[in-house]
From TrEMBL:
Stretches assigned to the HTH lacI-type domain: 5-59
GO molecular function: DNA-binding transcription factor activity; transcription cis-regulatory region binding
This protein's name: LacI family transcriptional regulator
Coiled coil regions, renumbered to chain: none
Source organism of the structure: Lutibacter profundi
Cross-referenced PROSITE patterns: HTH_LACI_2
Amino acid sequence: MNKRITIKQIAKALSVSISTVSKALNDSYEISDETKKRIQEYAKLHKYKPNTLALSLQNKRTKTIGIIIPNILNYYFARVLRGIEKTSTKRGYNIITCITNESYKKEVDTMEMLSNGAIDGFIACLSIETLKNKNFEHFYTILEEKTPIVLYDRVHKNINCDKVVTDNIKSAYKATRFLMRSECKNIALITTSEGLKINSFRVKGYLKALTKYNVVPNENIIIRQKNEKGLKKRINQMLDTNTVDGIFTIDEVSGAIATQVLNKRTIKIPDDIAIIGFTNGILSRYSTPPLTSVNRFAHTTGEVAAKRLIDKIEGKIEFDDIKTEIIRTELVERDSTKKMFVKF
């Protein structure tokens, strides 16, 4: 394998100083466009690559970001990662992606390992176990070391760092209101993530909409579970004993399962029962019929989180300047709801 060409060799070949080559490769305004072009073209021709280790030692930066994801099989998290990767690459940063599988211990171990000089900052989503334990010491320690962190989706008020979130209450309120405006009077609620704070916010939005329109919540058509186990049976029991003409599902899995139950019972969607789901993923698009869903713009969430973190790493934002970014949502209308000409 040929030895990698160096800045010194480029300078010698083009009869310029090492400083000029360095500035040209970094696109400095101090170097003329003609000289920059000549140096950059020569470097590209000879496959020049910067020594990232030397640069990190010089700049005290690794140009690497640690990404903490609780569940890579979740479509929303996969889309967030794509947004992070896109912005990070554009800004010249690498990413190290770690999956906690909803484990508090794995989250702690991973962050401790990466915070030992391997990365410049974290973009993280809290695991279910961490939220249940309410033990955030690993985050406090990293922040005390002045390593920036941006939390997304699942956050907690006790962790004083930047956050990128969805307005879950408002989005759920508007989704429920949409069903009511399409003449649904008995709207069921289904969640298979009972206990997660973000889902409790969506429940609040649902209840807020009912109250606003003077509808008394009916606990008999509200299904709360920690997971999807036995959900089909619960939905069937609810439909056997209650009148339901609309269903709002807090998560995408619930929406897909509810659709399966209705189809098996030969209930017409949306003529007999309309359905709206939360999170516009693959399950929503390929259900039968495709589900009307609240689009949370996961890709945008990732881009915003990455931009905020990199701006902090590069000193464009002060470390103590803490901000919560709220990503807008929109309702994607498909065939599981009646066609309405109303704004979400």
